[in-house]
Write a structure and sequence with these properties.
Blueprint (H helix, E strand, L loop, with lengths): L1 H14 L8 H16 L22 H16 L1 H5 L6 H7 L16
């Protein structure tokens, strides 16, 4: 339990440089995410092909782009190891990018 609390505080400390960049679109995105969490009927782990994922927001902040580039560099460095398994699980991702918390997806309609 203490390690989870420590991880949370480390996460917050890592985000402090982003606080000055927050604006209205961040508040709107937070509101949408909170609504999803409040109204969901269940939660399950699913595998989603990357070409089915729609981007929620643009990466346009310097610190976000720098962090993304660092992640890309890490993934390129370990490309062969990553491509050895066709399914990219959260556990596998944590081996290479422990700071990435994974993705949450929302089904837009029952037939999607």
């Amino acid at each position: 339990m203490l390690s989870k609390i420590q991880q949370f505080f480390d996460y917050l400390l890592g985000k402090r440089s982003e606080l000055k960049d927050l604006d209205l679109k961040d508040a709107v995105m937070a509101k949408v995410i909170l609504k999803i969490h409040r109204t969901r009927t269940h939660k399950e782990v699913v595998f989603v092909p990357l070409h089915h994922v729609v981007q929620l927001h643009k990466l346009e902040r310097e610190n976000s782009m720098a962090a993304t580039q660092a992640r890309v560099d890490t993934l390129i460095e370990h490309k062969e190891a990553l491509l050895s398994d066709p399914i990219f699980t959260r556990e596998r991702l944590m081996e290479f990018l422990p700071s990435v918390s994974g993705f949450k997806v929302v089904q837009q309609a029952p037939d999607c």
